[in-house]
TrEMBL record:
<dbReference type="InterPro" id="IPR001830">
    <property type="entry name" value="Glyco_trans_20"/>
</dbReference>
<dbReference type="GO" id="GO:0003825">
    <property type="term" value="F:alpha,alpha-trehalose-phosphate synthase (UDP-forming) activity"/>
</dbReference>
<dbReference type="Pfam" id="PF00982">
    <property type="entry name" value="Glyco_transf_20"/>
</dbReference>
<comment type="similarity">
    <text>Belongs to the glycosyltransferase 20 family.</text>
</comment>
<protein>
    <submittedName>
        <fullName>Trehalose 6-phosphate synthase</fullName>
    </submittedName>
</protein>
<dbReference type="GO" id="GO:0005992">
    <property type="term" value="P:trehalose biosynthetic process"/>
</dbReference>
Length: 479
């Protein structure tokens, strides 16, 4: 039952993700180069897959022609090409203007367009075909995230011999929201092609099982779905994490330490450096957090002579309207705040619309006294964990939204409701004025969590769970 697609390589472990770990960039002169892809998914999975010498199937990040598989840093990369139209309809449209806002508590209004759905189906089929063509007999295929929810069932149809896992990096919404989706049943059936469906939090796994019972009518018990053909599918939580050791080593390096000191110096050695680092996304709560900070200055609780907020916003999905609008809103807010409250050489907010290499991020984490992570909804938020990993001296305060998945594990953070501006103001102030002993007590507990549960723990727990459960192994069908 091999697919008819030509077999180009035969890997035992494959990741299928919307993005490759590297993006192709086309320069003005037409030459091309590669740079690391944005986002938490790639930064989490890349170290795991390099260690396992697996194959990675994904999109090179721009519209283009088909490309041959190639090797990069111990990994086989298999590019899946998308046309201009598919980038607009599958990626910017259905993935990021329908599913993204719907799965993030309607942080923006999702658009429903039938042509976008058709494109989503076609592109998911292309990823499934590529996975089928590159997997060895009995291989394990690990499908990633909301862009590819139909791939598990499509792949099982082509290759019933495979062990198929699926992991959702973003929240899975409650039934009341998910049910708006005109294609809700197809999505659920797509995911049920996997043997194991992983989520960040157990609440998300429960949402999924409940929807399967209600909308597809399968029998379920706790984390298990019983299909009419005897196959079982499990839905469980596997909170994702970071390469903790990698970040600790980076933060310990002399270059990073020197750079951290230089950053503080360049900012005029403020008493309190607040830091935000996010993709420029409306789910991240950047606007509300900067407003809270600026009000603390306007109210006289903080002074630009000794406090500054450094906000890094990584460009993201720039052709989607709501992202454009957000960029304008933040530009306007930062301009107004600095115009009204800044002094010469002392802006209230130091705003960087740019992406930086890991070294610079580690230096920023080391330089910051208070890290402010306030999404309205976030699957996990790895920035919060990276900050903790980089605080080698055990100091530094983390202000964290209770609506980030990370809040379930990092209980000792200064937790906030990002919709409550006054609450955020009070907590940011509390975090910046807390006794060093109190800050250290909280940080110590969080450092323990992040060092015990790193990304390789996450991956091995998922893969062990996928390999185990012998009674749930795929029924072999002999055509
Ligand atoms: O972690 C969630 C996620 O949407 C990933 O699937 C994605 O690769 C990353 O954020 C960055 O977004 P994008 O790939 O759209 O640039």
């Amino acid at each position: 039952s091999r697919s008819s697609t030509q077999q180009s390589s035969a890997a035992d472990l494959l990741v299928v993700a919307n993005r490759l770990p590297v993006d192709q960039v086309v320069e003005a002169d037409g030459s091309t180069s590669w740079r690391p892809s944005p986002g938490g998914l790639v930064s989490a999975l890349a170290p795991v897959m390099r260690r396992n010498q697996g194959a990675w199937i994904g999109w090179p990040g721009n519209a283009g022609e088909e490309m041959e598989p190639f090797e990069e840093d111990g990994l086989t990369l298999v590019p899946v090409a998308l046309s201009e139209e598919e980038v607009a309809e599958f990626y910017e449209g259905f993935s990021n203007d329908t599913l993204w806002p719907l799965y993030h508590d309607l942080a923006a209004k999702p658009s429903f367009h039938r042509e976008w759905w058709d494109s989503y189906v076609r592109v998911n089929q292309r990823f499934a075909d590529a996975a089928a063509a590159n997997a060895a007999e009995g291989a394990t295929v690990w499908v990633q995230d909301y862009q590819l929810q139909l791939v598990p069932a499509m792949l099982r149809e082509l290759r019933p011999d495979l062990r198929i896992g699926f992991y959702l990096h973003i929240p899975f919404p409650p039934a009341e929201l998910f049910s708006q989706l005109p294609w809700r049943r197809q999505i659920l059936e797509g995911l049920l092609g996997a043997d194991l469906v992983g989520f960040q939090l157990s609440g998300a796994a429960q949402n999924f099982v409940r929807l399967v019972r209600q909308r597809v009518g399968h029998k379920t018990h706790r984390d298990t779905v019983y299909l009419p053909d005897g196959r079982v599918v499990r839905a469980r939580a596997f909170p994702i994490s970071i390469d903790t050791e990698g970040f600790e080593e980076l933060a310990a390096s002399e270059e990073v330490q020197a750079r951290a000191a230089e950053i503080r110096r360049d900012l005029g050695n403020p008493r309190t450096l607040f830091l935000g680092i996010d993709r420029l996304d409306y789910t991240k709560g950047i606007h509300a957090r900067l407003r809270a900070f600026s009000e603390l200055i306007a109210d006289g609780h903080l002074d630009v002579e000794d406090a500054v907020f450094v906000q890094v916003a990584t460009p993201s999905r720039e052709r989607v309207d709501q992202y454009r609008q957000l960029r304008d809103d933040i530009d306007q807010l930062v301009g107004r705040v600095n115009g009204d409250l800044g002094r010469i050489g002392r802006p209230a907010i130091s705003y960087l619309h740019s992406s930086f290499p890991r070294e610079e991020m580690a230096a920023l984490y080391r330089a910051a006294d208070v890290m402010v992570v306030t999404p309205f909804r976030d699957g996990m938020n790895l920035v919060a964990k990276e900050y903790v990993a980089c605080r080698l001296d055990g100091d530094g305060a983390l202000v964290l939204s209770e609506f980030a998945g990370a809040a379930d594990e990092l209980r000792q953070a200064y937790l906030v409701n990002p919709y409550d501006i006054n609450g955020m103001k009070a907590t940011m102030l509390e975090a910046s004025r807390a006794q060093p002993k109190e800050v250290a007590r909280r940080m110590r507990a969080m450092r323990k969590t992040v060092s015990e549960h790193d990304v390789s723990h996450w991956a091995s727990t998922f893969l062990t769970s996928l390999a185990g459960d012998p009674e749930s192994h795929t029924k072999q069908t002999h055509p």
